[in-house]
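anyone seen this seq b4? input:
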Amino acid sequence: MSNFIAVLLKLYCLWVNFLHPIAGIFSSKFGREIDRYKQGVSSLILDTMELENGMSTALPDHIADNSNRKGTWVTASAHIITAVIGSGVLSLSWAIAQLGWVAGPIVILLFSLVTWFTSTLLADCCRDPVSGRRCSCYMDAVKSNLGGIDSKFCGIAQYVNLVGTTIGYSITSAISMVAIKRSGCFQRHGHDAGCHVKNNMFMIIFGIIEIILSQIPNFDELSGLSVVAAVMSFAYASIGLGLSIAKVAEGTHARTSLTGTTTGVDVTSAQKIWNCFEALGDIAFSYAFSVVLIEIQDTIKSSPPENEAMKKATSFGISVTTMFYMLCGVLGYAAFGNNAPGNFLTGFGFYDPYWLIDVANLCIIVHLVGAYQVYCQPIFKRVEDWWFNRRPNNSFIKEGRPINLPLCGVYHFSAFRLVWRTAYVIMTTVMAMTLPFFNDILGVLGATAFWPLTVYFPIQMHIAREKIQPYSWKWIWLNVLVVVCLVISLLAAAGSFAGIVKDLHTFKPFTSVS
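predicted toks r here
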């Protein structure tokens, strides 16, 4: 293994020092045009930033650096908690069951520390190093700090992950809706009843809700929804935590071990290996909120400095989520042992009290309704900006007349926004119905996206901005961290691929049943 890591590190150094600059040559003509543009507008942007702190902010939205931003570290924390604490918090008992009492909590803690560290680096990269202009999305930040080639790689990783996550949330929310219906069936007919229900209708219901909420114009308007979603995440995590404590207090001793599931008893040797890898992917995906960090930071007003506010929000958000992850994972494993279900609320690790479990699943649904919007808003913005820049005077694309909505204020209607966002939600809903095992695919996306978006790009942008000398001590340990996280991500992806291969044997589109 040490030789393997050494080879990866050498290949990585070759990319950083030789191949990467050569790749940049092929885009140099675009880079020169961008540099000339930056130099031409830098003075205008700097003047704009001075106006923010002084006389006036009556500038167009695309120039004024502080236009319409009302966010604070509190609203940013709500966005982070909404993005990070997904329904996956309730599957952490399964992950710890695969890894055991020792490795499980250590892995959760290590991922939280890596995510916190790289997120603070990323928060400092939200402004262009030449002009000082804010970057409104992750791709812009990478382009400003590293160049066009890296920006394209970032865009592929980010938007594939965002699309995959929204599809996964459609599946997970439907499972929680079905769990509520099955709960009533179990209450009437007993725990041994089948009570199987098809998921498709509930995915359609979730899709209809998201079509309506997707008409929220931009990320900055999501703060209220994110606060509600964050409260819901605390609610269902607390319910799961309380039920685990109650089960442990009953005195029934579940079978646990320092190394997790037992080979030859719970699983085969091959299953043990693949499940451990998949558990790494589940935990990594649980912390992969960097995909929307720049977009969240772009909602924060400039005074106090947005990077400091974002660091405060990141520290608070990751601390809170790690505490819940530890409690739910450890106590869930203590309650269920090596037989811990993938999700002990929807997988019916608990049956009683029925009403409380139904409330928890309802909280999951409300949370995922908000989390879906947190992950799809960057997609909406990217597509809409792309079309508006090419057809700025098209009446179909630009916003129409304002409409007064009761209790909501003025809403600026856009026909293009209505059609495009509705089409996107329909697409994700159909994909969720077509691929009932998409959670395994989501594990692949999460494992592969964690490395570039949470680790590689933040560290490389930090090295570029701080002009850290190659082969200095700091440069070496930062790049060792990159390589180690790459190996972990590859192992996690391999575990998820194994799950996909297994599911393909019984794959039937539009037949997902809980």
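The longest strand covers residues 402-405. Residues 75-504 form a domain with the Amino acid/polyamine transporter I fold (CATH 1.20.1740.10). kinda curious what u guys think
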